[in-house]
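FORM 7B: Structural annotation worksheet

SECTION A. Query
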Amino acid sequence: MIELSIIVPVYNEEAILADSVAELIRGFADMGLTAYEIVLAENGSRDRTREIAARLASVHPQVRTFSCAAPNYGAALREGIEGARGEFVLCEEIDLCDLGFHRRALALLRAGAVDLVIGSKAMRGAHDRRPLARRAATRIYNRMLRLTLGFSGTDTHGLKAFRRAALVPVVARCIVGHDVFASELVIRAEREGLRVREIPVDLEEKRPPSVHLLRRVPRVLHHLLRLMAAIHLGIGDRSRASSTKSSSSSSSTSSSSSSSSEP
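SECTION B. Predicted structure
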């Protein structure tokens, strides 16, 4: 039985993929963890990432991989979560691989203390050694989430670990993709009353971002507007649509039963 599924979205990562997976496997061995799977969620890479992922899956029985046709971090992460076989799911970043977070998050989940653990880069006690521009972008983005969506935490993007049974229904209600999917997942979990805890992380990037920061801004803003419309106005909100459909179905069934019971 698999206890832990580690989902790792990968895009154009031929330079660090093999070494990062080897680092994860060594780290889990040091933790005494054996019942786990590493899921490499390749999405639209133009280099040898897909080929390397397939080779790693053929060599290591605990590694498997799948591919999405287009570059889409959120779609890859969603598919990985939905297909995960572990009781717990850990969303990893190939350029971070913070084994200290893995150990602390798994202890909280095993103790039944939380449903979702967020590895925060911005809370007190965190050590974020990324370039200044990326650190500033994290804080600006989180401020936007607090102002527009009422988010009460300090980080949504990056390392996360959770009970799969608790979060899969939340995943099903998420409507946006790409980078903002990770934020939507955390925000919806918080709004729905799940037990969410942030813990500080210690991180340093292994390489520059695979997509330039400024190129991501228009897409992030677009998806953030969609998410605001869904949460505040119900536009495109899957949870409200499902509720309406369920109510309509119940009313129809009730009406049908009344008609059939008449003499």
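SECTION C. Observations
The first helix runs from residue 17 to 31. Strands lie at 4-10, 36-43, 63-68, 88-91, 116-120, 127-128, 160-163, 196-200, 202-203.

SECTION D. Sign-off
Analyst initials: ____
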